[in-house]
Design a protein that fits this description.
The complex is a heterodimer of chains A (262) and B (256). With 262 residues, chain A is mostly helical. In chain A, α2 crosses α10. The longest helix of chain A has 35 residues. The radius of gyration of chain A is 23 Å and the shape is globular. Chain B has 256 residues and is mainly α. The two termini of chain B are 14 Å apart. The chains are: A mainly alpha (262), B mainly alpha (256). At the A-B interface, α1, α4, α5, α8 and α9 of A face α1, α4, α5, α8 and α9 of B.
């Protein structure tokens, strides 16, 4: 407890020193305000972002809203396909063997490298961004659902068989609960992937969303707004990961940790 | 590895690949998908080879590999040193950890605008983004590894007279090698993906630039598809190479 207090104190002290250092550095003209926006400018920029918006009319809240909705659309689409498909592949060994190299390859394809192709197919609009997020989330989720179903402890299955639990009941009562922690961990990692993809995807062809905000701000030499955008992205990412981890502990108390997702 | 023969697994895998490729090729031949916007694999690769000379592919590939290797090595070195130091020396950890934890939730791609502000549009900004892609996974895993060394190993080596740097190099680092190896592989994958994205958004050469430029210039979809496949294979092959090198390295201490 005392150690944590010391740690928190040092952390706050360091942040204060850095902010003060940049503030003074800019005031004394050792640093350029454009390259190192000082805290006073960042606060002003934040007030501007919440009231007027940047570009004018688009406040920080609507940037956040647009980004979150895009992530959710792609994420939910990916889950809707990956969960049933993964449960099927995981339960049928031949199907699993046939899809291993394909899944490894498709996971290796950098999601954003698909951007030019998807633009050719669907234009540079909303659908393209949603498809890219869905692609990134899909393969992560699929491999975790397959692994979850495939690596259920055989002792559990033998024990259930000994109690004459078979077929669909075995699947619902034993395999599914045993696979759920891994599936949930996959869902958590997938959301993180979606979050990384959206920031890149929004940097092209849109003025709405957090990725667009930080890129646009740079083109207009408003580096303080870029920094605010980055901080908001960081906070949002942190909230999403820690929120899902908390939800996981609440929903799956038999999970026993979830560091196994890959 | 579970039951079942390895050769059998490989054959089934090949069957899966062939069925997919054949299905894709057939779908374009039979007109189920429009071959002008989604050519089959054979058409795509042949057309791409015809339209862009191999030297263009190789040149862009060399630039991408140079950037990703350079940025990764810098990021992995910094991540390893800082992660180990933060875990081994509590005083340094007090200062390094809050900064790392504060910056870690920001995805590397979100640094692109700031990288351009600080370093311009040239090579340093690409290196910086790739650096970040490698740094955070590596620093996290190095720190985790070094702070989770079995205490009995530390006590045993202390009773043999090891301490300080000697203990770090002979006990601490070997014991945390598996964690570090995981971080290095995640870092490599992330570095690779992040570089391609950075090349799409702001670059004048590299594989990411090559495919984005092809689409902006209204060029051929075949080149884009061949480029995407090449990027995927490069990532796959380099990751496998890294995994085998790391496996051999860890095998020195942890059994093959």
């Amino acid at each position: 407890m005392r150690q944590q207090l010391v740690q928190a104190f040092i952390a706050l002290l360091m942040i204060a020193v850095i902010l003060l250092g940049v503030e003074l550095g800019v005031r004394e003209e050792y640093l350029k305000a454009y390259e190192f926006p000082p805290a006073s400018r960042i606060v002003q920029g934040f007030i501007e972002l919440t009231t007027v918006g940047f570009p004018t009319g688009v406040t920080i809240w609507s940037h956040i809203f647009v980004t979150v909705i895009r992530i959710l659309k792609g994420y939910i689409a990916a889950m809707a396909i990956a969960i049933p498909l993964g449960m099927l592949i995981g339960a049928v060994p031949v199907l699993d063997k046939m899809t291993v190299p394909l899944i490894v390859f498709f996971r290796s394809v950098a999601t954003l490298s698909l951007l030019p192709l998807v633009i050719v197919w669907f234009g540079a609009g909303e659908l393209t961004k949603v498809i890219l997020i869905a692609y990134g989330c899909f393969w992560v989720m699929l491999s975790n659902v397959i692994a979850g179903v495939k690596y259920v402890d055989p002792a559990l299955i033998r024990a259930a068989r000994a109690f004459k639990v078979n077929g669909w009941t075995l699947y619902r009562e034993v395999i599914l609960p045993a696979a759920l922690p891994r599936m949930f961990a996959g869902a958590r990692v997938a959301l993180g992937v979606g979050f990384m993809v959206i920031v890149g995807a929004e940097m092209i062809g849109t003025i709405q969303g957090l990725g667009a905000l930080i890129m646009e701000a740079r083109s207009f030499y408003r580096s303080e707004i870029t920094v605010i955008g980055m901080l908001v992205i960081g906070i949002l990412g942190y909230l999403i990961t820690s929120g899902l981890a908390a939800l996981e502990r609440l929903l799956l108390p038999w999970g026993g940790g979830s560091s196994e997702a890959a | 590895m579970g039951s079942g023969s390895r050769a059998g697994d490989i054959l089934w895998g090949l069957a899966g690949i062939i069925i997919t490729l054949a299905g894709w090729e057939l779908a374009t031949r039979l007109g189920a998908i429009d071959p002008t916007i989604f050519p089959g694999p054979i058409t795509a690769i042949l057309t791409a080879a015809h339209q862009l000379p191999a030297s263009v592919f190789l040149d862009n590939m060399a630039w991408s590999l140079f950037r990703v290797t350079g940025g990764f090595l810098l990021g992995a070195a910094a991540g390893t040193i800082i992660g180990f130091a933060a875990g081994w020396y509590r005083g340094f950890g007090y200062f390094a950890r809050p900064l790392i934890e504060l910056l870690r939730p920001i995805p590397p791609l979100a640094w692109i605008p700031l990288a351009i502000i600080w370093f311009g549009l040239g090579e340093p900004s690409k290196f910086f983004i790739v650096f970040l892609g490698a740094f955070f996974p590596v620093v996290t895993s190095a720190y985790h590894g070094i702070t989770h060394v079995d205490p009995s190993l530390i006590r045993a080596s202390r009773s043999f007279g090891l301490k300080g740097l000697g203990m770090l190099f002979h006990v601490g680092i070997p014991a945390s090698a598996p964690d570090l190896a995981t971080g290095l592989r995640i870092g490599w994958g992330l570095s690779f993906g992040v570089l391609i994205a950075a090349e799409l958004i702001a670059a004048d050469r590299g594989l990411g630039f090559m495919i984005m430029n092809e689409r902006n210039a209204g060029g051929s979809v075949s080149v884009i598809i061949a480029g995407i496949l090449l990027i995927g294979f490069l990532n796959l092959v380099t990751d496998a190479a890294l995994a085998s090198v790391l496996g051999r390295w860890i095998g020195r201490w942890h059994g093959a």
